[in-house]
Amino acid sequence: MADLILIPQISIHPDRICFFNEIQWIGTRKYSGDLETGESLKQIKFDHLLKSKRTAEGKISDIARRKMSKAIDYLLLMANEKKVQSRHTGRQVAFKIAFITLTLPSVQQHEDSEIKSKCLNQFLIEIKKFYHVRNYIWRAEKQKNGNIHFHIICDKFIPWSEIRDRWNRIVNKLGYVDRYREEVKRFHSGGFKVRTDLLHQWSEQKQIIAYNKGVANDWNSPNSTDIHSVRKIINIKAYLSKYMTKNEMMNPETGEIEQFEHVVKGRIWGCNQELSDIKGARMILDNETNDQLKSAIDKSQCKQYHGDYFSVFYLNFETLPKFGASAIFKQFCEYLVQQFNYSFQPYLSS
Length: 350
Hints:
Layout lengths: L1 E12 L2 E12 L19 H4 L11 H17 L3 E4 L6 E4 L2 E5 L9 H20 L4 E7 L5 E7 L5 H12 L4 H12 L16 H13 L8 E4 L7 H10 L2 E3 L6 E3 L9 E3 L9 E4 L2 H14 L3 E3 L3 E4 L12 H15 L4 H5 L1
Antiparallel strand pairs: 1-2, 1-12, 2-14, 3-4, 5-7, 5-8, 6-7, 6-11, 9-10, 13-14
Helix pairs in contact: 2-7, 3-4
């Protein structure tokens, strides 16, 4: 015989607080679950999972989308704004995160898994070592030509030229820059020749400039990387979440959304260990915590979502002290220190 005990708890995240019940059995243990994800209270049989052949098939699942969105929340929170010098104007400009795209400069010759293990992994190791990148998220996609490419969000500024040089050196271990050089020299064997198929997005004048630069460096520095500017984007969290979790692509010629014709084999996204499977700060909902949560909900008039076994209150954690929930606020700040070794400055000064 066993007695069921429900322990009311909250988990605190940068932009929301989740209420749920933790299940404990006193006596013979039948099942213990976490209702934050909406699991059933009924005893569950797990046999069917052993026979499961789940595969992402190159797409981001709903579960992965939620995990990525949560990782982006925390990355943006801990990416302190800093000043860097603009290479165009020489002025100091505000910088928060880097949004990088890495492509192959020539036709893909290797399996997706080999490129991820030998190229992407090496790139991540090097930016952590040489630029002290702590938090990052990557996403693998296929281009229309079937080549794999990667989007990376990280919390440090890295000069674009250094990103390109580093990535080209890494992918050339598999011969991609050498093959690019051979292909371009063969195409321009009789001197400059315009790429008419690219004129809609790459003017002839710009092609001539690129050609002259290529000749000067013997075609050793292909344009295999890109840095996306996010300075002028108002809702950067929504933009990054949509961009990194999409399961379709836009046709540059028609502007229409298309499903991916090619899919990435194997893992299609990842992040550093600290950002993976984040649980958030946890608190048992005693009388004091309950009063503070109720005060914050009432005063903020926040958006809410109520499921069968959990509720979500969309509150920015920075506003919690203003709404009378200082203990919940401090619990989350202590979680940031313990989990990420990150100190939220307003908390230190309070």
